[in-house]
Amino acid sequence: VEKYLSDDVFNTNLRAYIKKDDILFTTVGSIGLVSLMDSREEAAIAQNIVAFRAKENFLPEYLYALFSNEDNQYKAKRIAMVAVQPSIKVSQLVNVEYMISTNIEEQERIGVFFSSLQSLITLHQRKLEHLRIQKKSLLQQLFV
Fold it and tell me: Which of 50, 122, 130, 137 lies at a C-alpha separation of 20 to 30 Å from 35?
């Protein structure tokens, strides 16, 4: 990352460097969009994104599922400041109360479940897109 960003650019425009398995959370505009950093490459995030790093007794996949949960998303959005661009401060975000399991086996089961569910959703979205393309092609052939 250092070869692409000067210290001045980083200090002026960016918030932090992120690592694999960090959970990214948007804090401006579309509040609460969540992503799990799956790349081993170093990257930097801008001021409108917060990165959470799991402590050793928490699995990143579990925390990702926790932050992605609709109820927890609602909690964060409810305390957001209303403006042209809604936003939430980091200090407000860390004070949101979440029900968190400290049992590693339970975290793993929850993380695997939601990861499998996300894979299934992605598979069906691809299948749907393929069917839409096929439908469009058939309709074009029908009217030619």
Answer: 130
